Amino acid sequence: MRVTVRLLAALWLAELLIIGAFTVAQVTEERARLHDDLERRASLLAEGLKEAVEPSVRRGSPAAVARVLRKFGRPDRRIAVYDAFAGLIATAPVPAAGRPASTAQGAAPARPAPPTPPEVAEAITSEGVRKGLRTADGQTTYVYATALPGSDRPLGAVVVELDASYLEAAEWAVWRYNILRFLALALGLGVITLLVVQLTVTKPMAELAEWAKQLRAGRPARVPAIGDASLFGPIATEVSGLARNLYRARAAAEQEAALRLRGEAIWTEERLKQFAQSQFGGQPLYVVSNREPLSHVWRGGKVLALMPASGVVSAIDPVMRACGGVWIGHGSGDADRETADEHGRLGLPPEDPRYSLRRVWLTEQEEAGYYYGFANEGLWPLCHVVHARPLFRPTDWAAYRDVNAKFAEALLEEMEGSEAPMVLIQDYHFALLPALVKAQRPDARVAIFWHIPWANFEAFGICPWHEEILLGMLGADLIGFHTQSHCNNFLESAERALEARIDWEHFTVVRGRHVTAVKPFPISVAPTFVEDPPTTSRAELCARLGVNAEFLGVGVERVDYTKGLPERFLALQRFFELHPEYRERLVFVQLGAPSRSRIPRYQELAAQVEATVEAVNRAVGTRGWKPILYLPAHHDRHDIWPFYRHADFCMVTSLHDGMNLVAKEYVSVRDDGDGVLILSRFTGAARELRDDALLVNPYDVDATARAILDAVEMPVEERRARMRRMHQHVREHNVYRWAGLLLGELARIPVEPGVRRPVGGPADVLA
Ligand code: GDG
Q: Is the CB of 312 under 6 A from ligand 1?
């Protein structure tokens, strides 16, 4: 209200000043105009009179003068002729009493003879004209006196007095008009201002306040539609950020309290934060991965932020949110440069930054050789036993080495000034990075986590550069895999390929004075969707999909040949062939995020997946029902959760998989204690969930079809009991625990003295 009053007062004051100034100018102009008019009329009359009376005055004939004046006289003006001594000779109209003999009889109604105006004497003395306004007895007149010229001195003077009282009236009229104008304008302005303030400020503010209140109360509400985004948008963003933090803090506190009450020691984001604080005293964590946690791309003239479909990103993002630090990743989006600063840095998450992303720029050639070539056509099939032949091109290997050196440079730059930094390198894209970093920063504690399987030495040994890869990795203090069998395969590879001592009791590799621990850390997912749990109902989901089914199955994958997608669809076909009673009752929804589409093998796979879906739908589908609904697109992370939540079963049929987070995400979302997980025995996840998931060999189509039948026919108690146990397991063995164990292990490694080795840079180490 006070703001409105101030706004109104300011507007009114401005209006007053403007109208006031205009009025003063208008009045001055009007006065000048009327004055000129009076003067013109008076001078014309006086000069005319002068000529007419001059002979009579010269002759000394007052009667003749009076006659002339009678002719010119009018009631609204006084004319008079004076002699050389300023004595009145004649005047018109004639004064009422004490009329002198020389008055102009009958010229006009009589009125008292006025006193001689001083202008008369002045005009005679100066032999010229004297004029001006004069007020006497509350009456304003305009006096014009002009001398009657004589031979050596003036004969007298002629005077004209005009009524000028209307001058004041005219000025008042201008003032009155402008005062009314001011009042009308002030009223109009007041009403409009109040309306505008109400509509653009008061109402949106009230809506924002109500929204903030809802958020504060823990009820997620939609941001009200805000007309002026430039005015209220920043507030809305800040309030959402605050609310989200509040919500998270409250959820964390409630979670901690509940866990304390139950005496459970579950890892939470808060606990990981505290742990990281106590272990490395708030030192930032340095993470390197090929994939950046958020990429920016141009879509239809707008910049869109995308969270990639990647197990590594899904796992590391919550850890970085908890610990803070710097994440170094490849800036792969076409709008990435525009959304970062000149060093390629930006805060994440954008609405509430908790850590920094440092983007590394790669040329197309580098990306082709290092990422598409050596990492994904070489190492990926090398490590996954899926019978896809790896390609080892020397040019790809050279690019791989160069890019590892480039990332090492960026990492070393970011670590500048930080003592004994903790470095967590992600995955098979950076096998050489640990040695490069350690060579420059022996004080750094370096871990590399290998997210994909490690094949046995017979398979691994075919790589022409297997020794370099092993040596690069062994630069780390700690190497992590998902399972003990991957660790064993790695230790065996090191034993057989290198001159290194393997301590099988402690699972370490000793080379000279450097010891590398090799341990399993089964990765997992964040326990729940704390920020904004999905609200879409099953009915809404089905309506959106245009699906009408009693049973819903789901698969969520990057389209990758290790994930066993065609095998899954063939098993579904088999299921419907063997159990036609389920036709038109069950729909399987497959979400397929396009992946590595530049690689021919992946292009073939994408076509094969589409063709298989079509073939299955043709083979067992009916006129109004398709057994498989394939949604090939990158989906928003939030959009995936309703599928997990409402699917009666989830299928993970990887031919070989390090862990597989989809299996754990499905289980984690099912805090309703329902749903069945069909899980390939060739995933890391199968080691943990083997008792309660329905384990399958995806190569065995009949067995997988049987598992689908088991899933839909499983008695509800059994279904719930299995899911409850799996849910509890994933809840406890969550990604915070994974990070806590990994970082705890890394923190225990003694720091080497921080002396730089005498080498030029990362590239020299590889030379
Ligand atoms: C590697 C290893 C290991 C899927 N589609 C979309 C999307 N996703 C998300 C899933 C899940 C992640 O991607 C996939 O994780 P996986 O673990 O299943 O598979 P990889 O990407 O191959 O991951 C694997 C993992 O690293 C972690 O160590 O488990 O063995 O191969 O989180 O939800 N996410 C978005 N849109 C999609 O369309 N946003």
A: yes
Judging by DSSP bridges, how do beta strands 285-288 and 325-330 pair with one another? parallel
Candidates 470, 471, 475, 473; CA nearest to 493 is 470
The pTM (predicted TM-score) of the whole model is 0.70
> Quick one: 68 and 108 in the same domain?
yes
CATH number of the domain that residue 60 is part of: 3.30.450.20
pLDDT digits (tens, 9 = 90+) for 396-436: 999 999 999 999 999 999 999 998 899 999 999 999 999 99
Domain match, 494 and 594 both: no
- Give me ligand 1 centre to Cα 331, in Å: 19
Q: Would you say residue 173 lies in a domain?
A: no
d(CA 95, CA 75): 12
* C-alpha of residue 309 to centroid of ligand 1, in Å: 6
- Rounded CA-CA distance 678/704 in Å is 8
Question: Which secondary structure element, helix H or strand E, spans residue 248, and what is its range?
Answer: helix 229-262
Number of separate domains in the chain: 3
* 49 and 110 inside one domain: yes
Shared domain for 707 and 620, answered yes or no, is: yes
Q: What is the DSSP secondary-structure string of 186-238?
A: HHHHHHHHHHHHIIIIIHHHHHHHHHHHHHHTT---PPPP-S-HHHHHHHHHH
pLDDT value at 755 more than 50: no
User: What pLDDT is stored for residue 259 in this prediction?
Assistant: 61
Nearest protein Cα to ligand 1, atom 25 = 311
